[in-house]
Amino acid sequence: MRQIVRHARFTRELGELLRREPLPKQAEEALAGFEWAVARDPGGFGNAVYGKPGFFCRPFHSESCAYLVLYTFNEMTVTLVSVRSVPSGQF
Question: Where are the beta strands (DSSP E) in the chain?
């Protein structure tokens, strides 16, 4: 499995989102599951980002929110670059 590296931008954005999250413990557990899965198979797990070669994105969900993570990877590491809150639920 590859090592997960959290970019400073990702850490800052995640902190801001968790302060607004009604259930931050569940969000942290959801992120841990996301990190485990993406470390195992980062290329097969995410979707390519249009116009950004080498970058991938993938959503994960907590009890009350959904997030989209932008990441890149090489042979040894997966670097989580950015995270955004995205709409969830029925459209």
Answer: 3-6, 47-48, 55-61, 66-73, 77-86
Q: How far apart are CA 91 and CA 88, in angstroms?
A: 8
The 10s digit of each residue's pLDDT in 40-73 is 988 877 788 887 888 999 888 877 788 899 999 9
pTM: 0.84
Helix, strand, or coil here: 45?
Answer: helix
